């Protein structure tokens, strides 16, 4: 049993010890696709799971397992398994449990790719999907009360950072025996641990904050062993395996998760407060602001309010077109959660899969800018925003 208790210390140390070899202080990247056995009986025992070990890279890999173990410990989970991308984590986890005729309840504001699974792929499999207004707890409770296999949540949401009360939704789901999945990508375990509120499964796009350096794709799901074993089995057969090199990069990134996320949260808060004072800005969305509709819920279930915010410009898409290129300390790109500040219009990033009518139905203004605060010094970020707003004067 490890003696440290603080999450920042866990970010640095957790999950790695079992995978160190030759006295190395860092986990090796094991590229080998297969593992050899001279003893045929031992090979058999490992293959059927009677003995610990590795057989083939699509199933398990030591570097990948070190990453899985670290995230499992950060989320306070019994078990975890990983995937090639965040979307693979989501689709594989859903496919493990959903059968034709089943019903799933979720919210309208999930990540664009997740929303496509709900609107396009699940209905093809004769799975009934009900999407509730995000943040409308009464309507979610009502739909869950009618019975469902899974309640799927994401909080805060992408890109308008809406908040759902996890504990309250878990209580509703338990009454009908539904599983609760939570996409915790935006919050990270530094700010929010859904399992501690009774959720059954936590899902991450590790591509974002967990890795933090925008140089590796990955996904992870954490929960009870009984659930994770089934998800792992689906993934090992269907093949959305995390690559060992990506696992190494994500593992290395995760060591500084607490430092990065704390700085990103502090920067996001200052940027949000600043944006509220700017004339050209129509609305600012950030759960840390008292003006946020569910600031109270965010305060209850989150330690800090996250590194993501969004804001709309009064001038709509035309203003976005002239404003965004002026920012010097920001990548205009589709990712988020990186050490560099990253910006983009919702219509070209999170919700590029949706048409204008769909985006409007989701309550995403065409002039909405998603702002992922990096770890730069805040004074430079604010100065950069100030000089960029001059173009709209
Ligand atoms: C990016 C993202 C995903 C998808 O992750 P990929 O690694 O790009 O497949 C899922 N959920 C949220 C909230 C995301 O931001």
What does this entry look like structurally?
The chain has 393 residues and is of the alpha/beta class. Helix content is 39%, strand content 15%. It has two domains: 7-254, Aspartate Aminotransferase, domain 2 (3-Layer(aba) Sandwich), CATH 3.40.640; 257-392, Aspartate Aminotransferase, domain 1 (Alpha-Beta Complex). Helix 5 (112-124) links the parallel strand 2 and strand 3. The longest helix is centred in the last third of the chain and has 19 residues, at 257-275. It starts with 6 loop residues before the first helix and ends with a helix. The model has no long low-confidence stretch (mean pLDDT 95). Residues 85-87, 111, 113, 154, 158, 183, 185-186, 205, 207-208, 217, 219 line the site of pyridoxal-5'-phosphate.
Going by CATH, the architecture of the largest domain would be 3-Layer(aba) Sandwich
Task: Give the spatial strand order of the biggest sheet.
Answer: 1-7-6-5-4-2-3
Query: CATH superfamily assignment of the largest domain?
Result: Type I PLP-dependent aspartate aminotransferase-like (Major domain)
Task: Classify the secondary structure makeup into a structural class.
Answer: alpha/beta
What is this structure's SSE topology?
Elements lengths: L6 H7 L26 H8 L14 H14 L3 E5 L2 H12 L5 E5 L4 H13 L3 E5 L4 H9 L4 E5 L11 H10 L3 E5 L4 H4 L9 E5 L13 E5 L1 H14 L5 H11 L2 H19 L5 E5 L9 H7 L6 E6 L2 H8 L7 E2 L9 E4 L10 H6 L6 E5 L5 H12 L4
Parallel strand pairs: 2-3, 2-4, 4-5, 5-6, 10-11
Antiparallel strand pairs: 1-7, 6-7, 8-9, 9-12, 11-12
Bound molecules: pyridoxal-5'-phosphate.
């Amino acid at each position: 049993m490890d003696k440290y208790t603080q999450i920042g210390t866990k970010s640095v140390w957790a999950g790695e010890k079992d995978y160190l070899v030759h006295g190395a202080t860092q986990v090796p990247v094991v590229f080998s696709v297969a593992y050899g056995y001279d003893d045929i009986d031992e090979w058999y025992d490992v293959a059927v799971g009677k003995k610990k070990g590795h057989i083939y890279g699509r199933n398990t890999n030591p570097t990948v397992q070190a990453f899985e173990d670290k995230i499992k410990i950060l989320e306070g989970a019994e078990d975890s398994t990983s995937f090639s991308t965040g979307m693979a984590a989501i689709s594989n986890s859903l496919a493990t449990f959903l059968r034709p005729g089943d019903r799933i309840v979720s919210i309208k504001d999930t990540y664009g790719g997740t929303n496509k699974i709900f609107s396009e792929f699940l209905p093809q499999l004769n799975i009934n999907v009900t999407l509730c207004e995000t943040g409308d707890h009464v309507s979610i409770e009502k739909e869950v009360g009618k019975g469902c296999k899974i309640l799927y949540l994401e909080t805060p949401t992408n890109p308008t950072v809406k908040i759902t009360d996890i504990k309250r939704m878990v209580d509703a789901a338990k009454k009908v025996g539904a599983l609760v999945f939570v996409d915790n990508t935006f919050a990270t375990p530094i700010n929010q641990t859904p399992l501690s509120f009774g959720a059954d499964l936590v899902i991450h796009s590790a591509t974002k904050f967990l890795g933090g350096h925008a140089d590796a794709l990955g996904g992870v799901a954490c929960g009870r062993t009984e659930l994770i074993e089934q998800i792992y089995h689906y993934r090992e057969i269907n093949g959305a395996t995390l690559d060992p090199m990506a696992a190494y990069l994500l593992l290395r990134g995760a060591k500084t998760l607490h430092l990065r996320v704390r700085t990103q949260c502090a920067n996001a808060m200052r940027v949000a407060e600043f944006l509220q004072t700017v004339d050209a800005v129509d609305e600012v969305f950030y759960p840390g602001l008292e003006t946020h509709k569910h600031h109270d819920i965010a305060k209850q279930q989150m330690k800090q309010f996250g590194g993501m915010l969004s804001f709309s410009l009064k001038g709509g898409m035309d203003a976005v077109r002239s404003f965004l290129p002026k920012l010097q300390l920001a990548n205009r790109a589709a990712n988020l959660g990186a050490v560099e500040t990253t910006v983009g219009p919702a219509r070209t990033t999170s919700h590029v899969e949706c048409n204008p009518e769909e985006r409007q139905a989701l309550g995403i203004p065409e002039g909405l800018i998603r702002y992922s605060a990096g770890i730069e010094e805040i004074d430079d970020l604010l100065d950069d925003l100030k000089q960029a707003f001059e173009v709209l004067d």
